[in-house]
Amino acid sequence: MAELNGKNLVLGVTGGIAAYKAAELARLFVKDGAKVVAVLTESGARFVTPATFQALTGNPAWTDLWDARMPDNMAHIDLTRGADAIMVAPASADFLAKLAHGLADDLLSTLCLARDCPLIVAPAMNRQMWENPATQRNVKRLVEDGVIVLGPDSGEQACGETGMGRMLEAAGLFEEVVAFFQPKRLAGRRVLITAGPTFEALDPVRGLTNLSSGKMGFALARAAAEAGASVTLVAGPVAQPTPRGVSRIDVVSALEMHAAVMRQVADCDIFIGVAAVADYRPARPVADKIKKEDKPMEITIEPNPDILAEVAARPQPPFCVGFAAENRDLEKYAEGKRQKKKLPLVIGNLVQDGLGGDSNTVALLDDRGRHQLAPAPKLEVARAIIGHIAQMTGARGK
Ligand code: CTP
Fold first, then answer.
1. Which terminal CB of the chain, N or C, has fewer other CB atoms within 10 Å?
2. How far, in Å, from the CA of 260 to the mean position of ligand 1?
3. Can you tell me the distance from the alpha carbon of 202 to that of 244, in angstroms, rounded to the nearest whole number?
C-alpha cells in the first residue's frame, strides 16, 4: 500500500522474547516505504542481533550511547532528528518504568526522553509483570503523557503461562502504525454509522436476515476514527471486533436500529448508512416456537422504516451517505436511490464484488458524477470513501 512512504521511523527493541517479532515489523515498515533505524537496548541485542536489523532496514543499527560512528557523538539526539515516530516493540516492563519516570541511562531511553516526535510502545511481558500495580501505574502515566500504547494481547506466553502480556503480532502493529499516520481529515466531526444485517424475528429461534458481514461498515467506522472523528457505530448482529476508539451500540432488528439511530442523530455531522437493513419484518412475531404442520404456511410481512431516508429528510440533516448493493445496472439503481432519498453521496457496489468478502469494488456517486475506485481491501476502500466525504463536507460546512 506504501502508506508509510517517506516516513522516518526509529524502531526501539528492548529485552524480551517478542524481540523476534520486531524483525518482522522492521521488514513490514521497510516494505511499505518507511526509512527505519533500529535502536536496541543491551538486553534487546541479546535476543536479536543488530546485524539482523541492519540487514532488514539497510541502515546501521544502534545500541550504544557512546557509538563513535556518529561524528558529533550525539547519537541520542541525531537519531530522532526528522523522525516521524519512535516505535518501541517490544517494550519491556523495565523499559516502560524507565519511560514513565523519565530515566535516560542508555541510548534508547535517552532518545525517547530527548524526542520531538510521537512515541508508540508495544508492551510485552509475563502476565504477572503486566498485572503488577507498578506496571499498570506506569502505563497509565505514559498514556497521560501522550504515549500511544498498543496492546498487549492475551494468550499463550513464552513462560508457558496464559494471560495478558503478549506483544501484538507484527502485522497488527504495522496496521496500527499505518492507522496512526492517517491524515486527521475528520478531526472534530461526529460520525454515526450503521453496519451489518438486521434480524427480524419470526419466533424465538427463527427470523428474516441477510448475508451482510458488517465488514464494510466496521472498516468505515475504523477509517473515520483514524481520521480523527468521534464515531458511533450502530451494529446489527455480526461477529466483528469493535474498532479502536469507536463507540458501539448493538441492535438486532430494524426497529431497534431505527430507534438507536434516532437517539443519536441530532448529535452527528455525518451519517453513513452501511447496514443492510431488512426492508420487511414479520407482522406478528410469536412468543412460542412455531410448530411444523403439514400444510403451506403464510407469513405476513410489513415494511420497516427506511432509516437513511428518514435521517436525510430531517429539517437540518447531517451529511448523509448511502450504500447501494446491486447485482446489475449499478449506476442506474444507485443514482436512483441517491435521487430518491436526496443524498449527497451514494456508494454503489455490485453484490458479487463485495458481499461477505475482505475486498470490495465501489463507485462513488455524487452531484459531480461517478468516481470509480479500484478493487481493494475494505479498509483501503473505507479510507478512500472517508477522504471523499471529508472533501465534500469540508466545502459544505456542517
Ligand atoms: N437503508 C436504511 N433503512 C432501510 C433500508 C435501507 O437505512 N430500511 C439504507 C441502507 O443502509 C443503505 C441504503 O439505505 O445505505 C440502501 O438503500 P435501499 O434503497 O433501501 O436499498 P435496498 O434495500 O438494497 O433496496 P432494493 O432492495 O430496493 O434494491
1. C
2. 17
3. 34
* 398 residues of the chain, pLDDT tens digit each: 688 999 999 999 999 999 999 999 999 999 999 999 999 999 999 999 999 999 999 999 999 988 888 777 677 778 888 999 999 999 999 999 999 999 999 999 999 999 999 999 999 999 999 999 999 999 999 999 999 999 999 988 887 888 899 999 999 999 999 999 999 999 999 999 999 999 999 999 999 999 999 999 999 999 999 999 999 999 999 999 999 889 999 999 999 999 999 999 999 999 999 999 999 999 998 899 999 999 999 999 999 999 999 999 999 999 999 999 888 888 899 999 999 999 999 999 887 765 778 888 999 999 999 999 999 999 999 999 999 999 999 844 34
| Residues ≥6 apart with Cβ < 8 Å to 238 | 195, 196, 197, 212, 213, 214, 218
Residue with cell 522516518: 8
Return the CATH number at 105: 3.40.50.1950
Together in a domain, 339 and 377: yes
Identify the domain containing residue 367 by its residue range.
190-393
Instruction: Determine whether 117 is an active site residue.
Output: no
pTM of the predicted model, to two decimals? 0.85
| Whether residue 260 is found in the same domain as residue 389 | yes
272 Cβ below 6 A of ligand 1: no
Distances (CA, A) of 293 to 208, 296, 315: 20, 8, 50
Which residue matches cell numbers 455480526?
A: 238
Does the beta carbon of 194 lie inside 6 Å of ligand 1? yes
Same domain, 275 and 150: no
> The domain that contains 326 carries what CATH number?
3.40.50.10300
Kindly give the distance from the C-alpha atom of residue 350 to the centroid of ligand 1, in angstroms, as a whole number.
14
**Domain boundary residue, one of 145, 180, 215:** 180
- Total of domains in the chain: 2
